[in-house]
Amino acid sequence: MQPMLQVDRLSKRYGERVAVNAISFSIAQGETVGLLGPNGAGKTTAIAMISGISKPDGGEVTLSGVRLAPNANALKRRVGLVPQDLALYEELSAWANLQLFGGLYGLGAAELRRRAKAALELIGLADRSTDLVKTFSGGMKRRLNIAGALLHEPDLLLLDEPTVGVDPQSRNAIFDNLEELKRRGKTLLYTTHYMEEAERLCDRVLILDRGRILANDTVAHFKQQYGNLEAAFMQLTGRGLRDGAEA
Amino acid sequence: MNTTAIRALIRNDMRLYFADRRAVIVGVLVPILIAAFFGYVFGGTGRSEDQGKIPVAVVDEDQSSVSRAITADLAADPLLQVSALDRVAAREQVKSGKQNAAAVFPPRFGEQTTKSLFSGANKPQVELLVDPSQTTGARVIEGLLAQYSMQEISKEAFTGAYGREAIDSNLERLDKLEQTPLNADLRTLLNAARKLNDQVNSGAAPGAANGAGAGRSEQRNFGLSIPYTVASTPVTAHDNTPYNSYAHSFAGMAVQFILFAGIDAGVVLLLTRQRGIWQRLRSAPLSRTEFMLARALATTLIGLFQITVIYLAALLVFKVRIEGSWTGFIVVGISFCLLNAAFGLMLATLGRSAPTTRGLAMMATLLLVMIGGAWVPAFVFPRWLQSVSRYLPTRWAMDGLDGATWRGLPFNAAVLPSLVLIGSAVACLLVAIWRFRWEE
User: Fold this and answer.
1) Which among B7, B19, B439 has the least Cβ separation from residue A92?
2) B residues 248..287 contacting A (CB < 8 A)
3) How far is the first Cα of chain A from the last one, in angstroms, to the nearest whole number?
4) To the nearest whole angstrom, how far is the Cα of B313 from the nearest Cα of chain A?
5) Which of A246, B103, B365, B386 is most exposed by smallest CB count within 10 Å?
């Protein structure tokens, strides 16, 4: 069966620094894969290339067998990106934000209303739809950030550290949302620093460091081999501090 | 073309603009207030009696009938506001800017001027103390002083006591000279002047018998005066339509504050690039052309909103009228808003950091509007600066708006300004397209 996402020898350099170094992996339809790595490992750069934001220096991305490079706009309709930085207009209401994001994907007014309502219900913000985003808590903003990527009903959802900076209750709520999406058959690629998130959510985990994939296996197999995911992560990436900026 | 996305982006930009109520108020209310101020200062609707008078001091150290008459004439002139002061106070007030100039009539001014009218010798000197920052006002004063002095001195020469003395003195001088035909003619002329002087002073002159008041009135006619009067007619859109200086000031402030909104649009775009929202936009099926088009249209619409509100206030409150072509006015307005949108996009592509870009753009905009004649009409500039302003789109915007409003020009007059504005917009857009970084 053709994978939903196929990444083949994808590379990116920033000057002399290699951010992503010929990484290859695939994700099957309906699978949830965690992309784990310390700061500066190349997670965000990889996500940017897969989502079509950033042009790779080498390699290619295919979605259901179709290459991304010459068909970026067509394939972008099948991918939803949840950026690490909040991608919201705080001066506008939640509803107005979703109207923009749906409009970018060409959704008509009626369809957009239906999907925005559904997305707000999924993340539990239906009753706050007309409130300005700046009045929301950090967790609510993170959930709305996810909702913004769901309106065009993408097959593949790319989540770049979607729980960063939120309290445990909000994180739990976000997990519930993601598990619901998983139940609906969405394919998720998820970057995080938190091992327990990956253990709870992911079927498979990729460990990335210094632009290279060090390991690619199921969560169960990592546990079997290393005891738990954190032990595997520390053993593979080492205990040295990574103070470099996230690439 | 993803028109739904373009519409969504435009709607979003409009929402963001109106969400910042303070910015909206600054964008429309402040230009209205400043335009109202400038319009008032430069003459208002042209119907007010409260036109600015030139303040001038007169120091009369002579106190003769001549100097008093000149002072009275100056005080009666509608252009001047005359204060009688002593020399020290007059100098102090000119120095402090309270008076544009002070005219000092020296002792024996009346006597000496009357004598020198016939002989050309021993002319007294009228000292004019001038505020160097008000040279235009000083020139007006100098002209009026010459006019009224000639009138009163010649009157004194033909009808007054100093005049009689001067005639007698000149006749005595002629007696001592060689008897040439020219001197004989001059003697005849002076004798005729003495006869006139005698008649006026004995009340025998025409009109003098009707009483002192009537005689004095008639005496004025013996002085030399400018042998014509001037009827100044403002050449505006229609006869009897006074010039409304609010028309120019509202055009100027509309141009300035729409450009400020263009700067804001550019800076917002720069800031957007640094936020997560940029990744969201980039991950959507949106081309660079669609994105830039949406931004340009949104900024154009915001500019049109501003110009509409600003001119509504001008029309309803300040009696500004579109005396010329409405179509011309609308075309110039749209062309300028298009230019502004392209200008904003260009800034966003050339700038690196938001604060630096804003600072440099503000400076450039203020120069553009100032030299373009948005603050004060371009004719007050030196000639070379007026020539420079011809190359600035702001000057063309001002000419276009002035033409459609108070000048009352037809649509044809709006064509060239509009073409220049659209051409400038295309130039800015080309730079923006060339420099715009869409791919990361």
Assistant:
1) B19
2) 275-287
3) 32
4) 29
5) B386
The DSSP line for B2-38 is -HHHHHHHHHHHHHHHHH-HHHHHHHHHHHHHHHHHH
On the question of pLDDT at B411 being above 60, the answer is yes
Q: Do A103 and B20 touch (CB under 8 A)?
A: no
Q: Which residue has the tokens 């160097």?
A: B132
* Residue A39, CA distances (Å) to A168, A229, B137, B168, B429 in order: 22, 17, 72, 111, 40
Does residue A54 belong to the interface with chain B, where contact is any CB pair within 8 Å?
yes
List B408's β-bridge partners, or say none. Answer: none
Residues A40, B352: Cα–Cα separation, whole Å:
25
Q: Where are the domains of chain A?
A: 1-78+155-247, 87-153
pLDDT digits (tens, 9 = 90+) for B350-390: 877 888 888 888 888 999 888 888 887 777 778 888 888 88
Q: How far apart are CA B101 and CA A1, in angstroms?
A: 97
- For B233, other C-beta atoms within 10 Å of its C-beta total 7
Taking contacts as CB-CB distances below 8 angstroms, the residues of chain A near B11 are 99-100, 103
Length of chain B: 440
- What structural domains does chain B harbor? 3-45+242-435 (no CATH), 54-222 (3.40.1710)
Rounded-to-integer distance, Cα B331 and Cα B225, Å: 51
Q: Is the model's pLDDT at A70 over the cut of 80?
A: no
Rama region for B177: left / alpha / beta (φ>0; ψ in -120 to 50; rest): beta
Separation of alpha carbons B332 and B351, rounded Å: 28
Q: Which residues pair with B104 in a beta bridge?
A: B59, B127
* Test mutation, B268, B280, B289, B290, chain A, max A CBs within 10 A: B280
B76: burial class by Cβ within 10 Å (0-12, 13-18, 19+)? exposed
Read off the pLDDT of residues A149-162 as tens digits, 9 standing for 90 and up.
Answer: 999 999 999 999 88
Beta pairing class for A156-160 and A187-192:
parallel
The answer to whether A73 contacts B280, with C-beta atoms less than 8 Å apart, is no
Inter-chain touch B277–A87, beta carbons under 8 Å: yes
* CATH number for domain A1-78+155-247, candidates 1.10.1740.10, 3.40.50.150, 3.40.50.300, 1.10.287.110: 3.40.50.300
Q: Retrieve residue A215's tokens.
A: 């390991």
Q: Does A109 touch chain B (CB under 8 A)?
A: no
- The encoded tokens of residue B10 equal 């435009």
CA distance B312 to chain A (A): 28
Extract the runs of DSSP E, i.e. beta strands, from B154-271.
none
List pLDDT tens digits, range B82-117.
999 999 999 999 888 888 899 999 999 988 888 887
pLDDT above 60 (res B211): no
Residue B73 exposure: Cα atoms within 13 Å on the Cβ side: 20
Check whether B210 has a pLDDT greater than 50.
no
Select the residue of B11, B19, B280 nearest A101 (Cβ to Cβ). B280
Assigned token pair, A25 = 């992996």
The answer to whether A92 contacts B9, with C-beta atoms less than 8 Å apart, is: no
> pLDDT tens for residues A102-161?
999 999 899 999 999 999 998 888 999 999 999 999 889 999 999 999 999 999 999 998
Q: Are strands A5-14 and A58-63 parallel, antiparallel or unpaired?
A: antiparallel
